[in-house]
Structures are given as structure tokens and as C-alpha cells.
Amino acid sequence: MIIWAGTSSDEVGMIVEHLPSILVPKKSQEVQVVPGRNGNIVLEDGSFEDYEQPYSVFLDAKEIGGIQRVMPRVVDWLLGHEGYQRLEDTYFPDVYRKAYYSGGSEFLNIFGEYGEGTLTFVCAPAKYFKMGERPVQITSGGKLFNPSAFAAHPTFVFDMISPAGTGSITVNDSTVNIVSNGQSYEEGTVTVYLDTAKHKAYTSGNLNLNNKISGDYEALKLGKTSVISYTGDVQNLRVIPNWWTV
């Protein structure tokens, strides 16, 4: 079963016919050939390329009005979203991907009651562990181990008194400072989200706080234990690790 943008293939009368292929994304590399030198020079920046993930599917529309009734629901499900969406399947239940669907699929019409075709999603290279979505409560000086082979960019969630709150969050040797700029954005204690992947800070009310943040973000290093500490008015720190693999 596929779960695309929060809706399962079962809900639109679609069956995945067999286990999907297991694909490994390609590294972003520049290969240079130097005359007279043994071997190539391989330049890498640590990134990976998007890849295509096909699913062979079967539509059983006999009991629900035929293909002409089912296909509009399938089209809405596939094409009614913009950009990358969450893609899950029951064959790899511990991870999810970010993908987009461009269309262009062709479905074989079998007696107006059944359909066969291939869905191809364009996937970002990262597979995110669902366990990495769970917030981890951290006391200052606490440690967090990265079980993946790839450096993760966490989201820090913490409480702070508005508007005069100041403090810092340190991961190993890198510190992010939260400064008071006198701007009153909400009364009392607010929940602040610090997304290190997007370099963006905002409140639970989606108010941008980038002008209160300075310093360096540090990824949670691959296969390492990071020490996380915080000072000042930063309270109740939770870390959403965003562990991932390829």
C-alpha cells in the first residue's frame, strides 16, 4: 500500500501489485580525467540526486462504478498537490520520503472494470526515520546519539518568555544565540521552533523570529554522540532529530 500526501492507495481503490524495486540514489559527483594521471579525480559535496520510484498498480473498480467513476478520484489524489509531499509505503514502514508526482502515467483499461499501470514518483534522496520525528527531551548537558550514517539537521523546540528572553543553545562546539531585540511578539511564555535545516526560527503562531537568532547551527554528526546544552531563558528544550538515510 502507498500512502501519498496523507491518503492511502486503498482509499482510491488501488492495489500495489508487487514489492517495489529498492533504489539507491546517486551521489552528486564531478569526475575529472587528467591526462597522464592514473585514475580520475572525484569531487563530491556530500549531496545526492533525486531518483524515480515506480510502483506497479492495479485498479479494481468493478464493484464501485467502473473505471470512469474511479479514475477522477485517482487523478485528484495524484495531481491535487504541489511540490514535494510525504510518501510512505507498507513495504518500508520505518521510513518516509519526500516526493512529487508529475503525472504522465498510462493505465490499461480492462473491460471498463479494471486498470493496470505504473506510478512513478520523483523522490528526494533522503529516507527519514519515523522515530526521528519524535521529540527528545534534553536537560542541559544531555547527550544525543545519531544512529544513522548521515549528519542530521534537527529542529529545536523550546519555551521562552516574551519579549525579553535571551539565551543560547550549544551543540558540541557550536552555539546559537537568542537575543532580545525589545520586540513584543506575544505575551508570556511562547514555544519557539528553531529549524536548523532551513535556518529558520518561528513561534508556534508562525511568527518569524530570525531577527532574534545569531550564531552557528551544527548538524548532529553521523554515528556520534552530541552534547547539547542551553542557557538563559531557554526552557524545556526538546529536540526533533530528523534522522535519515538513503
Question: Could you list some keywords that capture this structure?
Answer:
Jelly Rolls; mainly beta; single chain; five-stranded antiparallel β-sheet; 2 domains; Elongation Factor Tu (Ef-tu), domain 3; 1 helix; 5% helix; 246 residues
Topology:
Blueprint: E1 2-4, E2 7-8, E3 14-16, E4 27-32, E5 41-48, E6 51-60, H1 67-79, E7 85-89, E8 95-100, E9 108-110, E10 114-129, E11 136-137, E12 142-145, E13 155-162, E14 167-171, E15 174-178, E16 188-195, E17 200-203, E18 213-215, E19 225-232, E20 235-240, E21 244-245
Give a brief description.
With 246 residues, the protein is mainly beta. The chain contains one helix and 21 strands.
Plain-language structure description:
- This protein is mainly β.
- It folds into two domains: 129 residues, Elongation Factor Tu (Ef-tu), domain 3; 112 residues, Jelly Rolls (Sandwich).
- It is 5% helix and 48% strand.
- The model has no long low-confidence stretch (mean pLDDT 87).
